[in-house]
Design goal:
Elements lengths: L2 H19 L4 H18 L8 H9 L6 H18 L6 H9 L30 H20 L5 H17 L3 H5 L6 E2 L12 E7 L8 E6 L7 H12 L22 H15 L8 H13 L4 H8 L4 H7 L4 H22 L7
Antiparallel strand pairs: 1-2, 2-3
Helix pairs in contact: 1-2, 2-4, 6-7, 6-10, 7-9, 7-10, 7-11, 11-12
């Protein structure tokens, strides 16, 4: 019998039950529990023995971790300790009775990493320029021809991957949003019937907030991206049936006639990026940054762009944007021309300055 281990396991089970009652996702709960276990292993102690000094040493040991990762670890430990120190549960009194000490909150304002900037991701992640987007797509298409010329298998899969990248960019999708698309999520736009079923995508796997369910939204195809219509039609009418007769609802299928995996979607981008010779720090999510940036440069209203990508706050959309110098120069020139025109129609040249 190990009473300390029994109590610690019971704490974790009780905390998991509390989080499930809040309807948090299983992955969120398990991720938080993993942090608690990791800290316990690091200190080789139990929660009623933890101190602020040990917590600070643990955070310091996370060499090379991203700020968001560190804050996530801190949040998990803080929330767990809020649970075991709450008067609503019996852990404080039980630990005092059995072990002579009780858990305390060791994650405080004074030793926590605070969110000080709007964007804390990899500085290397940025929007692609128009030329880089074109180079990426050309490289993806080139891989198809290369496989065919060498007489190797996989040309159809490579063609699917090229279309996947184009759909991600043309609709500004996250990786999981693309993964979760079904054929039934393709909708026409009655205002633009020539787009067919590619006129609108119904996204059902949007990023959730605070452990809630995935958010849903509709993404309209903008005219500047209408070139993707031909690719979508080719995939549905010609290529998708080649993956075998299947009743699977997924829009994009794997070679085994199942839903295309998240890893395969990442690999599609990485292969095309390497073939195009683009910087290694660019990733699939950079296409979403590119979509936001380019819509802004196309002069779409900020609120429209925000709704298209499913951001709750306009500040998040602003972080994604990285407009070019050329766009800013054109914007400035447009404002100057507008003000000059206003001055000219309100002043008589005969009046002088």
């Amino acid at each position: 019998m190990d009473p300390e281990r029994i109590v610690f396991d019971a704490m974790q089970e009780g905390w998991a039950a509390q989080q499930r009652s809040r309807q948090l996702k299983a992955s969120t709960i398990e991720g938080r529990l993993a942090v608690v276990r990791r800290f316990a292993e690091y200190t080789n102690q139990y929660p009623w023995q933890w101190t602020a000094t040990e917590f600070e040493a643990f955070v310091t040991s996370l060499v090379g971790a991203r700020p968001t990762t560190i804050r996530g670890y801190q949040a998990a430990l803080r929330i767990f300790l809020e649970y075991v120190t709450s008067a609503d549960y019996e852990w404080v009194s039980r630990c005092k009775d059995e072990f002579g000490s009780a858990p305390t909150q060791v994650v405080t304002e004074w030793n926590s990493y605070h969110h000080t900037t709007p964007y804390e991701g990899d500085p290397g992640r940025r929007p692609l320029t128009y030329d880089e987007v074109q180079a990426l797509f050309d490289a993806a298409d080139g891989l198809v021809e290369s496989i065919r010329c060498r007489g190797r298998k996989g040309a159809i899969a490579a063609q699917r991957d090229a279309i996947v990248l184009k759909v991600v960019y043309a609709f500004g999708l996250r990786r999981r949003e693309l993964w979760g698309l079904d054929l039934a999520d393709l909708h026409g736009n009655p205002k633009v019937p020539e787009y067919g079923k590619a006129g609108c995508l119904f996204v059902r796997w949007g990023k959730s907030s605070r452990g809630g369910p995935p958010k849903r939204r509709s993404v309209l195809l903008v005219p500047e991206m209408d070139w993707v219509v031909a690719s979508v039609r080719q995939w549905i009418d010609e290529l998708r049936p080649m993956f075998g007769p299947t009743g699977h609802p997924a829009l994009f299928l794997s070679e085994r006639a199942g839903r295309l995996s998240l890893r395969s979607i990442n690999r599609a981008f990485n292969d095309a990026r390497e073939e195009a010779g683009l910087p290694g720090e660019l990733d699939l999510h950079s296409l979403r940054h590119s979509y936001v940036t380019h819509l802004i440069e196309f002069d779409y209203p900020e609120r429209f762009v925000q709704d298209q990508v499913g951001h709750q706050y306009a500040s998040t959309t602003a972080v994604y944007a990285g407009v070019s110098d050329d766009y800013r120069h054109r914007l400035l020139q447009r404002v100057i021309d507008r003000d000059r025109h206003r001055w000219e129609i309100t002043h008589d040249p005969q009046d002088g300055l």
